[in-house]
Task: structure prediction
Amino acid sequence: MEVPENNLNTSFFSRYAYAFKAIVIVIMMMVLLIPASMITDVIRERQDRQSSAVEEVSSRWGYEQHITGPILAIPYTVAGSANANYVYLLPEQLKINGELLPQKLKRGIFSVAVYDAKMQLSGSFSPAAIYKSGVPPSALKWDQASVIMGITDLRGIDNQVKMVWNGKTFPFSPGVVNTDLFKSGIQSPVSLASGDTAALAGTFSLELGVKGSGRISFSPVGKTTTVHTSSSWPDPSFDGAFPPKDRRVDAKGFSAAWEIQDLNREYPQSWAGNKYDIHSADFGIKFFMPAESYQQSIRAVKYAILVIGLTFIIFYFIELSQRRAIHPLQYALVGLALCIFYTLLISISEQLNFTLAYLIASGLTIGLISLYVASAYKSGRIAAGIGGTLLLLYGFIYVIISAEDQALLMGSIGLFLTLAAIMYFSRTIKWDKLSEKSTVQ
Result:
């Protein structure tokens, strides 16, 4: 007896109904990655707004400050040249002691770390170093010498800077003699008598108050440079060419000390012209903002496929084991709830710290899905099982995004264990019985 073609088609689709359902679920997972990628674009847009807020606050308070000097600049004559040429003499000893007074300024919902640095600089010059510059001493114009200091943003200076050198006071004015060493700074004429090595070898001291934002750095221009700073900021990041020799960081703030020799850098104590990059050995302190919520949110979004995929697999196994079909629309609603978790995370983390925001967003998402499952299945046991599984999943992802150094290792082990659990539970499903039950008699 010949079986009608319609019956053959019906029998085929019935036999492989669960396989077709699995294909539909995979397609839905891929589609739900579209809103996940759109959420990444939202995070980027919020990051841009944060950068704009930082730029606006910094433009009014002061940008990052790079302190270089003091340096003695002495012009010299070159036959046939109309331009001013300079020999630069770096200090023999340079000591910087400073206190950084931090603040958090708000621009809308964004916080910007700023500081007011109060520093005392002292040291001395070596007369012998000037003769190693390669310029004959007779060509030097000692009476036109100047002491120069590089300061990135002059708007941040909040005191009248005066240098006391050999008992004499030399006030600074804005500007630099040229741009061989730095583009922005202050200078003070210090007329010296030719060959007056005693005056050159004397000690100097000055006080500098400067405002800035985000970061402050120093150039180790002394043959021996020692820097000591302290602050009440609890989250510093020491960066640049040299780490601190000694440091203390706790909830009350930090203190750090550097001691750097001329052998640690790539430029000498004196030279002529712009032969060297004086900023090549800069070091400093970044006022780290621990609430880097946007970067952590981006890392969380990267695991969207894992969250959606595992959740759908759990629902699929429940559908197989309970013999209760779940409509594709219900899968879609659950998937959208999982995507909305990320928008909740971003918006809440802008108001609170990331950990608390993650706890609230995941709690709301897990609660919503659990209540929906309890209503759809009329089973508190199934809802509790799914809620517990999601709780473990979100907890696992939080551990991964928090552990930056071990994230790859922990993620790989977690994925392996997850796959092992899926394989273990799927072994109890009688796949052949499902096909037989679906076959048209």
